[in-house]
Amino acid sequence: MTPALFTEPLGWAALSALAAVVLELGWRRGRRTPVYRRHLLIFLLVALSGAWQAPGLRPWLACAAGGGLGLALASLPWLRSRRLEGMGWRRGAGRRPDPGAPLVLVADPHWSGGLTGLREAQAAWPGADWLFLGDVFDVWVGIPGMETPLEQTFLDWVADRRREGRWVGLWLGNREYFLDGLAGRFDLMGEGIGGALAEEGLAWEHGDLVNRADWRYRLWNLVSRSGPVWLFARALPRGSAKALAGRLQRALHTTNRAYKLAFPREAFRAAAAEHPGATFITGHFHTHEVEGNGIALPWAHEGRFAVWRDKKVQIQD
User: How many CB atoms lie within 10 A of CB 172?
Assistant: First the structure.
């Protein structure tokens, strides 16, 4: 006969794993809560259920282990699938007050020493709205106390444009972490797939999730934006956290270089085909490519931006 002390915790773990999966699948539909926050809340809820079932450490550990397992199992399809709606989130206005205004598109500026090209584009398009398609800085971590002067300068610039009545959107890339606390500083902020100004026939994502074959990158994306990493970063002294961000910045200079240089044409064409009747744009690849209704925007690191106007993307030299 199996000891009760073993069967009860095993049963609690199994039920907790099932509860975590059900909660996760149901909560994904909202598209307003980033994955790390959602997973932390689900894990906390499921783990605490052990304390309600029986006193002692064993039930809590069993429920905590089951909750973690359930969340991991629910995330496995993200490693290969293009059905990634639950991996992302968005908040704000998915329409512009003046759809006829030009929309400046800024993809992957990777600003480090200054906001290269931003003032020049503003002067060239004084009445324009703005959409930033990720990788704004080499690394941008949205944890209080880790702001850099350059990031604050950019946020001040955004605030000035919005006071002028311009629409400003930011779609997060693979170098932005935990920025949802800044969502109120933009008219639209989001992450993952599914970015769109539907009334204008424009759809986008950053581009890092286009290639479904690159499961190692997707695993890194999940882990680096997970609840445990957020808790770890919040617990570190700010000096240590900034030093860690600096090391991450240097490491990311070479991360996925081969993936970016070998443009995944078939995967990109398939991703664009998911948006029939719309123009689909991405950044990420650091190269200007056109496949079907999809356009990969050029690298904006040297100030080379694009403009959406009259339902066409114009690449600015």
Answer: 29
Residue 63's Cβ-side half-sphere holds a number of Cα atoms within 13 Å equal to 20
With tokens 């499921």, the residue in question is: 46
Strand order in the sheet with 279-282: 195-197, 202-204, 279-282, 294-296, 289-291
Which residues of the chain form CATH 3.60.21? 92-315
CA–CA dist 39, 34 (Å, integer) = 9
The answer for residues whose C-beta is within 8 angstroms of residue 231's C-beta and 6 or more apart is 40
Residues 6+ apart with CB under 8 A from 249: 138, 139
- Over the chain (317 residues), what is each successive 10-residue block's mean pLDDT? 54 89 86 91 88 74 91 90 88 94 97 94 96 95 90 98 98 95 97 95 96 86 89 82 65 51 89 97 95 96 93 89
Strand partners, 289: 296
How is residue 238 written in tokens? Answer: 């700010």
Pick the CATH number of 92-315 from 3.30.559, 1.20.1420, 3.60.21, 3.40.50: 3.60.21
Strand positions, DSSP E, the chain: 89-92, 103-106, 129-132, 140-141, 168-172, 176-177, 188-191, 195-197, 202-204, 279-282, 289-291, 294-296, 306-309, 312-315
CA 263-265-266 angle, to 5 degrees, is 140
From CA 309, how far away is CA 317, in angstroms rounded?
Answer: 16
Question: What per-residue confidence (pLDDT) applies to 250?
Answer: 59
Query: What is the Cα–Cα distance from 230 to 195, expressed in whole angstroms?
Result: 24
pTM of the model: 0.90
Give the residue carrying structure tokens 């030093």.
243
Which residues neighbour 118 within 8 Å (Cβ) at sequence distance 6 or greater? 106, 109, 157, 303
Phi and psi at 148, nearest 5°, equal -105, 160
Question: Using CA atoms, how far apart are residues 254 and 230, in angstroms rounded to an integer?
Answer: 23
